[in-house]
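Q: Structure for this?
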Amino acid sequence: MAFVQNFPFMSIILSLFSGPLSTVMDRKKAKIINTAVLLILTAMSAAVLVYVMGTGESYVYTMGHFPAPWGNEIRVGVLEAAMALFFCVIMLLCMLGGVLERELELEESKENLYYVMVNLLLCSLLALIYTNDLFTAYVFVEINTISACGLIMIKQNGRTIEAATRYMIMSLLGSGLLLLGICFLYDLTGHLLMSNIQQQVRILQETGAYHVPLLVSLGLMSIGLAIKSALFPFHTWLPDAYGYSTVSSAAILSSLVSKGYIFLLVKIFFRVIGFDIVKNSKVVNVLFVFGIAGMIMGSVSAIRENNIRRMIAYSSVAQIGYIYMGFGLGTTDSVVASIYHIVSHAATKSLLFVAASGITDASGDSTSFFDLTGAGYRNKLAGAAFTVGSLSMVGIPMFSGFISKLLFAQSALESVNKMLPTLIALAISTILNAVYFLKTVIRIYAPDRKLASEKHFRTITMADQPQKAAALILFIILNLALGLSSQPVIRLIRSGLSMFS
Amino acid sequence: MSKKVPREQYEKTLTWRLKSWFAGEKDLLLDEVEMKPQKEFKEDAAAARKRKEDHERVRSLIYDRDRNVGIRFFERAYQVMSVLFCLFLVGTLLLAVSFLPSFGNPENPVNNEVAERYIEDGLQETGAVNIVTGMILDYRAFDTLGESHVLFIATCTVLILLRIDKKKKTGQEYPEESDNIYEPKDDLILQTVTRILFPTIVIFGIYVILGGHLGPGGGFSGGAIIGAGLILYLNAFGFEKTEKFFTAKTYKCLSVCALGCYALCKSYSFYTGANHIESIIPLGTPGAILSSGLILILNICVGIVVAGTMYTFFVMFRKGGY
């Protein structure tokens, strides 16, 4: 066994241990540990990706001396390694972009607890990506939920406490449904290991036994994870949670936490149940309808919003809708489009949150639209970054959002019944996206010098906020790279998905 | 030869007090118990009136059902929908359960090769007489590693929410801080009982943890027992006594050591297992206290984390810091 193959396990353990270690450190040391762990994990994931792409096949890694159905194991393929690398990079940039806000907004003695949350969150995301066992996935879903809650409420004001409470209630409901689904599935198949469950489910499908509980179990798991990742009717916890928490939390929550759950759902569809069985069940149609409703209703809510952070948060509802619509279309191509959209949305949404914080810094920390007039001149880099993010969200060519919309439209053509609703919803949603994002871009570039001098807004240059500037530049590069060279990424996702089954 | 003692010292002894109590001369408990009733939290009358008025005004504006027809409709619809939703969920789940394999049937899918190996080879492979412990701490130790971190991160989240920053005093007095003035101090009955019970509880907890691989028990249950003992001690003797040996720093150091030890031990066995290297840890004779490889150490680690978590939860909700 090559030494590189140990890296996934090592990265999980490293991030897991760095969590408790940060509690006994002061804030500076905790920050250094966090950055170091993120850098090491990025390097390790990159090495694993190179290795797996070289061998061209996935491998399983036994956690302990007992082989798979008895002990635990993790499984590493191209898609898993790529996702791990991508999540580490985004996490690193989010943490870099929110350094200043964390110093200002968090209580000094509690800042090290923030790094505890971040480290354990990263660990749980990695475990969700790599795990080959449904129950291990559930354990790390718990860690993910609690740490996300901590990230929301660590900036303590009434709004965040309320948002965290709401998040907790909804998210626990989702966890409960997921657990019920797993229990049903275990009772029917007698296994918790993904590949063994799939074998048993195929046998059950051929004999036609236990059809109803199987369907209910699939439905419970899908809806549970949909609640946790804020699919449309279950999105009410989202705007407050993203809108009022500290910047790096909002960016991490929107781009990584919800995506981790969606990735787990992809694993359940492809590795646990088998995608052809999922396709023939009614569950995908439900996800399709909710997804389309979310694409439109999320955008409508975003248009009505007067607070820039909450507007970006509502835009997330719409984008999550896109992803679930891709699952709902039920073809391999559409799932590839969904996974590409996970990547593209994660890169863009975290960029938007960090850029929005730069814009509001230059407008006296006000998030309401009225004060943002001309903010693009006061903080040039953040204005440019926000424009890039907006254009990508709307779906202008050259940016990553365009590619995912193109992929969705292409995959919709394969399905007869769902083609028309998909294309119409894509068109409407794109126009609505353009309405609220371009409205904001126009506002931040509308010249309004008189107001600026009256309110003593400050001008921010790159030297004032070097960390945020660096994060924004790297985010812009990442976005352009995803938009301009999308073909390798799509090929990678496709080969990764084919390794899944 | 009995020793002669002066009169004052003699009057302090338990025998004399018991004797005089029987003789009806002195109440044994007099001047000993101090039961202060809790003072009511009194708000400044004007401030209270203003707060109440504000509250009423906001409420009347928001919930003015005549003007906001939407609210009336929403409240009614919310009630109806929630009942319908619950009925739907309950119905679906009951329906699905009725199709599940019947309970206790030996032909059920869950009775497969996985359970068979746990039961038949569990003793030889893990060295633990208690198969459940062998399962959670050896076969599926990765899950338990995650589970103990769930407890740890829950404590951290409660710390974020409830810990009061000592440096950041804004002049406003927190009711939580003055809380320990009101607690009944020196409750003789509680203290006497605790003096007897506390060591017993802790020793029993340690026994349950250490015997986890030999019989019923283990880190989770033993840790909970020790945590309950600590909470009892705190209630009897107050924070002054407990802070001599258990502060936030102690908890953090203990849990870092325990979790780190767990992670380190399991990393070794994960690494050797995956790379097909023979593990050097002996399994020992089943039934002996030093047997079953790493399970004993892992149980102790889990026990420390669980006890600390329980105690910290209590302290945080009680006072908001220690």
